[in-house]
């Protein structure tokens, strides 16, 4: 029996175990700002890997969930002269949901779909990576060292996780990021980059009836800036600007002494990021309402995932591996962002959304297609075994 047959047969026998691990993880609080909760999911990952003889390393983080590295030793890249050796299986343990959400909406399965906070995005992908690592630890056959990287703050732009991810990327032969497979069953070959920033505006309070002339409206300033920022949208170039949050003011009869709004910028080409951010800085620096003062702060950022000849070869290997598992998979472009952009930017051939199939992420209706769990794990395992075919 070949190693591929052994691994795929073992994974096929692990469906119930996968669902049990997923239920435990979904029922554990894990919002990005809930460090204790995200670290509890990290403890679960370490416990599982240890039970399969896989050593782990904990990289402590100050504010957010610790990063976990699980390592399965394997062979080496063949005949390429490439010093990068690691095959990286990546994923984030944090979710977007508030504390207590698992108690309100615990893990459930109904009609072939699993539900619960973070069930698809991306706790199922985390569990899948755990079992793929366990399969290679049990049967061997990996054409290089396997690294499972489990981070804890992707949903807010990986402010602490990014340096860890970038360090891993520098020694990565290939990266599989197990974000949820598209509802179509496809994987993601390309993603937009994103910048998430905050503008704080200071004005001057005054009675809007009795002393109007003495006031300086921060809200008036914000309105002008928002119109100018939204006008930077260029759909033909894939550039979008959205002010999704705004707050400010003191009372209806007071000129607003303060205002804050938050900007979501999405783009495709790296050069577009600098161009648009430069224009945003100019808008923020300009006082449309005389006397106002404004400050721009970048709170989070993702880099775009753009295909390369090497990543296209990885996709072809994965596509064939998926076909041998009975899955028809194509590559998609999405405007959503992910940690995969960080690895791709450092030259690591990266394929994203190879996790189990799900949809409606970040909503109470988020779901996972239960029957996709095992086949997607098998497809990844086959792709790893055949990665030499990508010529990396």
From TrEMBL:
Alphabetical list of Gene3D superfamilies matching this protein: 3.30.70.360, Zn peptidases (3.40.630.10)
Classification via InterPro entries: Bact_exopeptidase_dim_dom, Pept_M20_glutamate_carboxypep, Peptidase_M20, Peptidase_M20_dimer, Peptidase_M20A
UniProt-recorded Gene Ontology molecular function terms: hydrolase activity; metal ion binding
CDD domains recorded: M20_CPDG2
Keywords on record: Hydrolase, Metal-binding
Pfam assignment, any one: M20_dimer
All residue ranges annotated as the Peptidase M20 dimerisation domain in the record: 190-291
Active site per UniProt: 94, 154
Signal peptide location: none
Superkingdom of the organism of origin: Bacteria
Name listed for the protein in its UniProt record: M20 family metallopeptidase
Lineage of the organism: Bacteria, Pseudomonadati, Pseudomonadota, Alphaproteobacteria, Acetobacterales
């Amino acid at each position: 029996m070949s190693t591929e047959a052994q691994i795929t047969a073992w994974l096929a026998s692990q469906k119930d175990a996968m669902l049990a691990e997923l239920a435990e993880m979904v029922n554990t609080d894990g919002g990005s700002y809930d460090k204790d909760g995200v670290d509890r999911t990290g403890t679960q990952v370490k416990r599982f890997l240890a039970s399969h003889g896989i050593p782990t390393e904990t990289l402590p983080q100050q504010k957010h969930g610790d990063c976990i590295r699980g390592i399965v030793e394997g062979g080496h890249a063949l005949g390429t002269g490439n010093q990068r050796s690691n095959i990286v299986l990546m994923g984030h343990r944090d979710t977007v949901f508030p504390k207590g959400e698992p108690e309100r909406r615990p893990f459930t399965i109904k009609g072939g779909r699993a539900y619960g906070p973070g069930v698809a995005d991306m706790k199922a992908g985390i569990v899948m990576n755990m079992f793929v690592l366990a399969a290679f630890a049990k049967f061997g056959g990996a054409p290089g060292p396997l690294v499972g990287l489990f981070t804890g703050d992707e949903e807010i732009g990986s402010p602490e996780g990014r340096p860890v991810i970038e360090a891993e990327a520098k020694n990565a032969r290939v990266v599989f990021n197990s974000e949820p497979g598209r509802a179509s069953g496809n994987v993601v070959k390309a993603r937009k980059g994103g910048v998430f920033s905050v503008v704080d505006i200071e004005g001057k309070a005054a009675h809007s009836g009795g002393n109007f002339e003495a006031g300086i409206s921060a809200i008036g300033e914000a309105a002008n800036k928002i119109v100018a920022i939204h006008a930077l949208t260029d759909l033909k170039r894939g550039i979008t600007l959205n002010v999704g949050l705004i707050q400010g003011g003191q009372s209806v009869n007071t000129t607003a002494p303060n205002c804050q709004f938050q900007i979501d910028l999405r783009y495709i080409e790296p050069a577009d990021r600098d161009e648009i951010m430069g224009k945003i800085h100019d808008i923020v620096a300009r006082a449309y309402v005389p006397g106002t003062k404004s400050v721009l702060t970048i709170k989070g950022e993702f880099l775009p995932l753009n295909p390369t000849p090497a990543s296209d070869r990885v996709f072809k290997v994965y596509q064939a591996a998926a076909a041998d598992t009975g899955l028809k998979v194509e590559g998609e472009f999405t405007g959503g962002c992910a940690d995969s952009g960080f690895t791709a930017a450092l030259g690591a051939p990266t394929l994203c959304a190879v996790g189990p199939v799900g949809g409606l992420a970040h909503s109470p209706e988020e779901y996972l297609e239960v029957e996709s769990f095992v086949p997607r794990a098998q497809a990844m395992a086959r792709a790893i075994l055949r990665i030499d075919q990508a010529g990396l």
